[in-house]
Amino acid sequence: MSFSRRSFFSKSFLGLVGTSFFSSTWCPKTEGQKVVSNKTVRPIVISTWTNHEANNAAWNIISANGTAIDAVEAGARVPELDAADRSVGYGGRPDREGYVTLDACIMDENGDAGGVCFLQGIKHPVSVARLVMEKTPHVLLAGQGALQFALENGFKQENLLTNISKKEWEDWKKTAQYHPVINIEQHDTIGILAMDKAGNLSGACTTSGLAYKMHGRVGDSPIIGAGLYVDNEIGAATATGMGEAVLKSLGSFLVVELMRQGLSPNEACKEAVMRIVKKQAYKNIQIGYIAINKQGEFGSFALQPGFQFVTNQNRVSKERLSKSYL
Ligand code: SD4
What we know:
alpha+beta; Glutamine Phosphoribosylpyrophosphate, subunit 1, domain 1; 4-stranded antiparallel β-sheet; 9 helices; binds N-hydroxy-L-asparagine
């Protein structure tokens, strides 16, 4: 049986809140443009690493007056289906037992969120995450339960382990040494954030996680506040890199809270990285944050050199190199 999140909550507290808090701060300027706190909305899409196609898919939705939530889902679906992206979805590197296990989450302008973790055999975990958000009273479904939910909702179970990922895993098993590889590929885990023409923010994050991780390991990417956080009043942030470090610092939530205190997206990402530097062993891991605020400003910061991200503020996606601590 599936529940409707909206009917579940509307009978409780949503009804008491009445009309949207946000709507009172928005007023139309000219057609297709709005003002937020007297500043013109500057729609934007930003994503981790060099996922130009993902960004462009998201931007196409934004530019056609679509919503940020539709845009980030469409963007995240691109690398999920791309066998050449070895850190996301189909073609992702398996865990040490040879299973491709997927983590994803999504969060919208209402503060609603959904996620799946340790999901196997489903090509679009981000879309399952969106259904968790929209059709259930829960935020996170794991493993077999997430799979069951996906199958009940029309997703097909398929083999996601490609020949090349299988071959590499078999080679890895000869030594079976586990150590993180920094910037393993330049088309790594995708975290994607968007602001639409109405000024609303959303984000998504999807990954096959660390290559050759322990079976059952879940990283930061499906965890709201760690791999992704969106607060429509303030901004949005997402993370890539060693999930354990992001989980221990609740990094994306931290970035958004730092922006709430007045830091720019760049400064907030930097401060979140510095928390890891201060409190954790950081020399052999990579962490990269990207963030946007309500004014459409973006920023990033990484622990190690080499972290790239892509922005769209118009049709053409632009690749950028993040500043870093080391
Ligand atoms: C994880 N944060 O599972 C993910 C991995 C990642 O770039 O972002 N790789 O820990």
